Amino acid sequence: MKKDKLYFLTFLAITIVFLFVAAVASQYFIKASANQLLEVQVESSKREAKEVASLLDYQLSKGVTKQELVEKMQQIVANSNKNSWFLSVFDWSGKEVVHPDLSIIGQELNPNQTLIASLEGKNSSDDLYEILVNRNSEDKMLSEVIHIAPLKEVDLLVAAHVNMNKIATQMNKLKNNFYLIFLIMGILVIGLSFLAVRFIGSAYEKELEINNSTLRSEVVNLSKLNTDLVTYKEKIIERAERQEKLQEQIEEKDVLSNKSFEEPSEREKQRILTYVRNELVPIPIKNIAYICTENTITYVVCFSGKRSTTNASLDDMYANLNNTIFFRANRQFIISITAIDKIIKYGNSQLKIVLQAKTSEEIIISKNKAAEFKQWLNM
User: Fold this and answer.
1) Residue ranges in the chain whose pLDDT is less than 70
2) Among 17, 35, 169, 154, CA closest to 97
3) Continuous segment of H or E residues that includes residue 293
């Protein structure tokens, strides 16, 4: 259930991000494409108006009358107002002389010349795009002048018009095409991204499940190891108590029979001789928590935290200790079974021993020695 919710949130996040990016990018691409299209057509219309004006000037210079010129021009532009761009001619008073729509001839040009003022000498495509975008749907303006080319011989001007409705229809078609492209891209990107997340997520989940399974197995083994530790401690304590009672009985019998004690080498050592500064201090074996070396000095540490030193090496000490109670953890530490507080998994199949008494360094049992330690606990 949690995975399904996570996948749903991932799908939602990808969708939101794509919609945000698409909303910003689509406006930029639409404007850039529209400006490029308008720029080409605006420049073409301007060039056409200038060429027509030059041609009319040439005909006037050849003796063609103004009236004949107007009649020929009317025949050329007839019904061209249905195109996106067309030409017209008006005189200096602003009255239409030639226009594709015969009903407009004789009427004065629209007095609103803001478009002409905004286009001359500037980026026509950008300005025209802004006018088209901000144009109201109720706007009845069918065309607007974007460029004028005056004739030299007579008081006439050739005007290049833009059919606002036609251009608006082209822009809407362009927008719709871009929106369709972004919709298809959105479905593909979101779908493929979601599938990629599912695929990667599934692979990661499988790996996580394997790791969790391994971890659970290691936890079970470690729990068993700590249980064995508790059991072994109890056995050692019971054995130590029995040995103490047995030793007491032996000593009592020896005293009663006036017999000498056994040689120390034939009995298990009960204490070791250590130094605290220049003072000799005997330490009972049962009080030793661990023995360690620091800077070539061998320290004997009791459960109480008391530290003393000995001249014997760690190897010599271990050889004279009961190996059912003490274990050589590594080159630096010999630890007592009764001093172990807990065992923790450490690194790659290594074990970390935490003692009841504080140690200067962590006690790590290597991978190779971990099996021996586990076998020692099961003795």
Assistant:
1) 1-3, 109-142, 240, 243, 247-268, 379
2) 154
3) strand 288-294
Give the ranges where the chain is alpha helix by DSSP (H). Answer: 2-61, 66-77, 114-119, 124-133, 164-256, 314-319, 367-377
- The token duo for 314 is 């760690």
Q: In b/e form, how buried is each residue of 210-236, taking b as 16+ CB within 10 angstroms?
A: eeeeeeeeeeeeeeebbebbeebbeeb
Say if residues 73 and 98 touch (Cβ distance below 8 Å). Answer: yes
pLDDT (tens digit, 9 = 90+) per residue, 316-351? 889 888 888 899 999 999 999 888 888 888 877 889
* 340 strand-pairing partners: 355
In this prediction the pTM is 0.42
Q: What amino acid occupies position 45? A: S
Answer yes or no: are the C-beta atoms of 291 and 314 closer than 8 Å.
Answer: yes
Structural domains in the chain? Answer: 2-186 (no CATH), 268-377 (2.40.50.40)
The whole-number pLDDT of residue 27 equals 80
Query: Which amino acid is located at 6 in the chain?
Result: L
